[in-house]
Amino acid sequence: MVIGTTLLVMCVLIVAIWVVIEVKRLKHKIFAILLIGLIIFAYVSFAMVFKDQEVNFKTIPGLFDASKIYFSWLLSITGNMHSITTHAIQMDWQGNETSEA
Are residues 45 and 26 in the same domain? Predict the structure, then answer.
């Protein structure tokens, strides 16, 4: 009986340690995926914003101009998302019930 209880406690401890390690690995994987997504978003957004702009990235005033342009674009995107969300909330989403006789 003592051996069975000891084996049960050992198995529970082993499973608990394995679960804790897997949860930590999952957190790291999620963080890595989010970081990769952020890098891809930054690259694509920089490419889109500065595609037609003549900005000198080698000077301090040019960097300030670039940051103003980028952050104004980013704020306009968030404003557009806010506008789309509020319009979607205000819509009548109930289905039309028409009966055909």
Answer: yes
Render pLDDT for 20-64 as a digit per residue (tens, 0 to 9).
888 888 888 888 899 999 999 988 888 888 888 888 888 999 889
Supply the DSSP symbol for 50. Answer: T
Number of domains composing the chain:
2
What amino acid occupies position 61? P
Residue 7 and residue 44 share a domain: yes
Is the CB of residue 69 less than 8 Å from the CB of residue 49? yes
Residues 73/45, Cβ–Cβ less than 8 Å: yes
Q: Identify whether 21 is part of a domain.
A: yes
Counting residues of the chain whose pLDDT is more than 90, the rounded percentage is 20
Quote the domain boundaries for residue 30: 1-49
What residues contact 69, with CB distance under 8 A and at least 6 apart? 49, 50, 53, 55
User: Cα 81 to chain center, whole Å?
Assistant: 15
CA–CA distance from 96 to each of 14, 93, 101 (Å)?
57, 9, 16
